[in-house]
């Protein structure tokens, strides 16, 4: 038997995990639960101790083994025939526990570049009452909404919109762009005489990329029209009932906030929706809306508008708006003003004044000047990065979350961004199980005292669950939200202290919007970016986009784990064998995770799915970043540890994993091409409304399912 096989898990059979809940009175139940937990935890402690022994043995073997053995093993590993921890001759199905702290790649020294700090004031000293606004508008803003002075972007933008100008607005996240367009629109609508009626239909169309942002912007309009009861705002978005929306459209909506897919479907299928009165078109998060996948739908909406009305003012906003983005959808802007708070006090005329484009035409689908202006981040945002070897990612995340949200403070609100839905599902379930608030009252008596509130949000959730998660997380003052980039844009969730990016974003733009969920409107906030050693070159790339980060050392994060482990439910018998050093504690927690995954089949499947989705997502970084983010740079066996798997799933690690990814990418490319031919819809776009073409509907559903499940 090989040395490594000595470490095969001797634990209970899979699927036996707490399946049979003991009957009897409360006292008996608690005792039985304690015994079961004690058994599992003791097992983890034993394994964490064995693990140190094991690592010594394997290290010795690796160092002293004959060269031919080493070369042979290395060759096999290279071709994926061997798990890095199963020696030749080992049982292929064997579950091997490898050391967390041995054979890790070195943590490189990061060479940060000097960052030019661009100052951007959030607030101005001017008051809303200094503007020619209706007195009720001013009193509503001051007394009900609670804002007396304007933010800098509001001060610069509102007068231009009130003059009827087309405007392109770029200002940092959380600087108040929503009111910058909402106030002048409501002001103009209330002043129309005779009064507008709801049956007139929409005067303003506000397009946003996600459902949560649609709800949020709609709520802002609802507050603003409070004194002007005859103005009716409304919201249309994928996931909601089509019939109910049609009924509301029939009654009349004057300010229509919508996601593009659902709006387009109503334009195509709801007769009562007329665009003839539309005077304002707002594209919030415009750069996102005009990206690949969204831009076709937006161009179609603009075509509808162009046919229905000629008198239109267009307003485009984003924290990462670059000049020329309007060309992406061939939007025609008439002598637009560029408001860029970071650059100067005086807004500029657009260099491409009055440029006309062909809607959706190929020539216009590239932004030519993405580097022409610098991005600005909130001054009160402290940004950090941590470099962890792949094996230690999961325990480092657990250490970070439990320290900040339980041990250090019980009032911490955190968002953890991940690249795919499967990653979100897996981490949510795992953390909920180990550290979440239990719905079983027995747990409180049982001493299970980590009790963090966990939430999840991604594009594949049922709309009602999505709405519930969003609302509950907005209202709570402590908790952790695991999410995809569906929550990266525009959301204004109160009192977020930490933004964690557990998977690296595809570029500076995504980075800026993710971290922009904290440090909003002058408040304090912090962010942490997880990197693997092979990814450290990403820091100077972010530096070039004015993003400045400080290193947080992994061992500093991990040293807090001991308190977490102490707080986890342990009875006296296991407490005696609680690990002490950082290495022991981290290994202990990793063993708890691994045992749980190993013993619970559905969790095991979820871990594998998450692992695979991570690997696939990893192959979709833009070509400019491929030298850093290439799956070949990562040891998949080590990476599997961060999914509490004892070896990488074979479907990925078979010798041709490179070919598999290539095939998958080709398939994805083909699907993307046919999708673009049939429709411009992507996840948030997918409204499920089209009634005419069932075949297309099914096709889109399939594409939506198979595509990376990114959002
Ligand atoms: N004049 C003001 N004074 C104080 N706070 C304000 C003012 N205007 C807006 N805010 C607050 O600032 C926060 C951010 O506003 P908003 O969501 O509009 O920012 P944003 O610039 O659109 O951000 P993002 O780029 O992330 O979408 C909100 O909580 C809002 O209530």
UniProtKB/TrEMBL annotation:
**A molecular function GO annotation:** RNA binding
One Gene Ontology term, aspect cellular component: nucleus
Question: What's the entry's take on its domains?
Answer: The Q motif is unique to and characteristic of the DEAD box family of RNA helicases and controls ATP binding and hydrolysis.
Q: Where is the composition biased (Basic and acidic residues)?
A: 53-62, 363-372, 656-679
- Renumbered residue ranges of the record's region Disordered: 1-89, 342-374, 656-691
User: Which keywords does this Swiss-Prot/TrEMBL entry list?
Assistant: ATP-binding, Helicase, Hydrolase, Nucleotide-binding, RNA-binding
Where the record annotates domain Helicase C-terminal, the positions are 380-562
Q: What spans are recorded as compositionally biased (Basic residues)?
A: 21-32
Organism the protein comes from: Mytilus galloprovincialis
Q: What name does UniProt use for this protein?
A: ATP-dependent RNA helicase
Do the record's keywords include Transmembrane helix? no
Q: Where is the DEAD-box RNA helicase Q domain?
A: 126-155
Its family remark reads: Belongs to the DEAD box helicase family. DDX31/DBP7 subfamily.
| Higher taxonomy | Eukaryota, Metazoa, Spiralia, Lophotrochozoa, Mollusca
Give residue spans, biased composition: Polar residues.
63-72, 342-362, 680-691
Which CDD domains would you find in this protein's record?
A: DEADc_DDX31 (cd17949), SF2_C_DEAD (cd18787)
Function description: RNA helicase.
All residue ranges annotated as the Helicase ATP-binding domain in the record: 158-339
Please give one Pfam family short name. Answer: DEAD
Report the EC number(s), separated by commas if there are several: 3.6.4.13
From which domain of life does this come? Eukaryota
């Amino acid at each position: 038997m090989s040395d490594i096989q000595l470490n095969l898990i001797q634990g209970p059979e899979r699927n036996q995990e707490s399946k049979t809940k003991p009957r009897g009175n409360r006292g008996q139940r608690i005792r039985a639960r304690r015994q079961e937990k004690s058994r599992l935890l003791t097992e983890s402690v034993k394994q964490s101790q064995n693990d140190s022994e094991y690592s010594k043995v394997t290290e010795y073997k690796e160092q002293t083994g004959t060269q031919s053995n080493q070369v042979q093993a290395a060759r096999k590993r290279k071709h994926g025939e061997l798990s890095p921890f199963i020696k030749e001759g080992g049982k292929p199905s064997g579950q091997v526990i490898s050391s967390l702290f041995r054979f890790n790649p070195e943590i490189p020294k990061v060479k940060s570049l000097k960052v030019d700090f661009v100052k951007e004031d959030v607030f101005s000293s001017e008051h809303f009452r200094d503007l020619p606004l209706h007195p009720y508008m001013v009193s509503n803003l001051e007394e009900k909404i609670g804002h007396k002075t304007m933010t800098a972007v509001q001060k610069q933008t509102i007068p231009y919109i009130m003059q009827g100008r087309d405007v392109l607005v770029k200002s940092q996240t959380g600087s108040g762009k929503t009111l910058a367009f909402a106030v002048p629109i409501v002001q103009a609508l209330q002043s129309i005489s005779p009064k507008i009626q709801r049956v007139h239909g929409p005067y303003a169309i506000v397009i946003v990329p996600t459902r949560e942002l649609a709800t949020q912007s709609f709520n802002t309009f609802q507050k603003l029209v409070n004194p002007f009861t005859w103005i009716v705002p409304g919201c249309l978005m994928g996931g909601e009932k089509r019939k109910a929306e049609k009924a509301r459209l029939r009654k009349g909506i004057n300010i229509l906030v919508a996601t593009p897919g659902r709006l387009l479907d109503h334009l195509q299928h709801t007769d009562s929706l007329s665009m003839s009165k539309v005077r304002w078109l707002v594209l919030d998060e415009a750069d996102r809306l005009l990206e690949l996948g969204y831009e076709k739908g937006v161009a179609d909406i603009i075509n509808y508008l162009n046919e229905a009305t000629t008198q239109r003012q267009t307003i485009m906003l984003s924290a990462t708006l670059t000049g020329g983005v309007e060309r992406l959808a061939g939007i025609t802007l008439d002598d637009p003003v560029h408001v860029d708070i970071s650059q100067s006090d005086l807004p500029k005329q657009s260099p491409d004044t009055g440029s006309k484009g062909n809607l959706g035409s190929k020539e216009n689908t590239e932004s030519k000047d993405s580097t022409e202006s610098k991005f600005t981040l909130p001054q009160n945002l402290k940004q950090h990065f941590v470099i962890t070897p792949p094996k230690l990612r999961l325990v480092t995340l657990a250490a970070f979350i439990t320290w900040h949200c339980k041990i250090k403070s019980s009032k911490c609100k955190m968002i953890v961004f991940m690249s795919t839905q499967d990653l979100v599902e897996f981490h949510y379930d795992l953390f909920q199980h180990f550290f979440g608030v239990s719905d079983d009252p027995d747990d409180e008596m049982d001493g299970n005292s980590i009790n963090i509130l966990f939430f999840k949000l991604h594009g594949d959730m049922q709309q009602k669950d999505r709405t519930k998660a969003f609302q509950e997380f907005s209202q709570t003052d402590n908790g952790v939200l695991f999410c995809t980039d569906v929550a990266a844009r525009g959301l204004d969730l109160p009192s977020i202290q930490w933004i964690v990016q557990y998977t690296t974003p595809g570029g500076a733009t995504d980075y800026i919007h993710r971290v922009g969920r904290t440090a909003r409107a002058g408040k304090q906030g912090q962010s942490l970016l997880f990197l693997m050693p092979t990814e450290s070159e990403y820091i100077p790339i972010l530096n070039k986009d004015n993003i400045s980060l400080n290193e947080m050392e992994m061992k500093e994060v991990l040293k807090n784990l001991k308190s977490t482990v102490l707080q986890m439910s342990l009875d006296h018998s296991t407490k005696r064998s609680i690990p002490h050093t950082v290495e022991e504690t981290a290994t202990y927690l990793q063993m708890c995770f691994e045992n749980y995954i190993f013993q619970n089949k559905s969790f095991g499947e979820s871990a594998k799915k998450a692992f695979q989705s991570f690997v696939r997502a990893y192959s979709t970084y833009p070509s400019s970043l491929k030298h850093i983010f290439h799956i070949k740079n990562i040891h998949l066996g080590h990476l599997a540890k961060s999914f509490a798997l004892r070896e990488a799933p074979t479907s990925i690690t078979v010798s041709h994993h490179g070919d598999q990814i290539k095939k998958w990418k080709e398939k994805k490319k083909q699907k993307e091409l046919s999708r673009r031919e049939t429709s411009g819809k992507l996840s948030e776009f997918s409204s499920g409304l089209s009634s005419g073409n069932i075949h297309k509907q099914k096709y889109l559903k399939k594409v939506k399912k198979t595509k990376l499940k990114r959002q």
